[in-house]
Amino acid sequence: STQIQLAARPVGWPKASDFRTVTVELGALQPGQVRVKNEFMSVDPYMRGRMNDVKSYVAPYELDATMLGGAVGRVIESASDDVPVGALVVHAFGWRDVVQEDAAGFRVVEEIPGLASSVYLGMLGMTGLTAYVGLTEIAKLKQGDTVFVSGAAGAVGTAVGQIARLKGARRVIGSAGSAEKVALLTSKYGYDAALNYKDGPVREQLASLATEGIDVFFDNVGGDHLEAALNSFNDGGRAALCGAISAYNTTEPVAGPRNMSNLVTRGLTMKGFTVGNYAEHAPAFYAEMGPWLQNGEVVFDETVVDGIDHAVDAFLGLMRGENVGKMLVRI
Ligand code: NDP
């Protein structure tokens, strides 16, 4: 099995020498084990946090050990009745081409005809669920709300805009980092308006697009985006804090929004969340998202990098914004 290990803890932006590729001999299958050939592995922003040796909601990656992450693959050998040969499985043993572990570590997915297995890592997987939980449970989206989404052209963001629209948002505004992404948000993803945060201060750009204010903010970016949202909120506004990617590779302390007093004066609610704590919403999510995908009410993009040898490049590309929709590695 070809596997990618963390060789050194990155300082600031990770570099190639922080990782190493190894070949691991897999022994004979033990009772209860399965062997899975991975088809796609996920690269995700949270993995940057796991490369640091700090206490967080997921354990740090161990040095000189194969990294973990979401992946989807096909069972090629099985010593378990629950997870038979041929089953498509989603699991957390990414960063390798073949994995052999106890069957309990794998979730068999019900395949939807016409959808490639990669969808179970994106729109019908962790990032889709994050968007769904964040909007419905955390931000308590209501009919008629105006919604602002940062990181809108990424895996989570493209899901947020479409779910908001399907759940009755009145106006959906997105932010992304290129003219192409901004155009895609309005032409393909149901956004009413979008801004390029590299074109000028987000606070001013948002104010001009949200002349009647915003009710919900779904934040993937933090920093200036959060400050802009706090400025544009209507009374009783709600923010779901999902991520703060603008700070993941910085070594300096991050400045907070300078206008937090709006929380008081406008009666705002801000709530952070990690999707792992909301797994009980997964069945409701699958029940809605499956049909939305099948009947074309939800569309998606994937940016696919070929070969496990390019997995680190895919991860760095994600952090630089080279993806539209879900960033994936085809194994
Ligand atoms: P994306 O597909 O959105 O990819 C990351 C994107 O972030 C890039 O494409 C880039 O787009 C943007 N970006 C990078 N640097 C900056 C910056 N300095 N300022 C603004 N945008 C930047 O990734 P995901 O959809 O997987 O994740 C989105 C966010 O959601 C992340 O913050 C992640 O940590 C968080 N997350 C949280 C979860 C939870 O449970 N709370 C679960 C999953 C994800 P651009 O070209 O627009 O800059």
From TrEMBL:
Residues 17-329 form the Enoyl reductase (ER) domain. InterPro entries: ADH-like_C, ADH_N_2, ER, GroES-like_sf, MDR_fam, NAD(P)-bd_dom_sf. Coiled coil: none annotated. It holds the Pfam family ADH_zinc_N. The keyword DNA-binding does not apply. CDD domains: PGDH. One of its GO terms (molecular function) is oxidoreductase activity, acting on the CH-CH group of donors, NAD or NADP as acceptor. Keywords: Oxidoreductase. This is Enoyl reductase (ER) domain-containing protein.
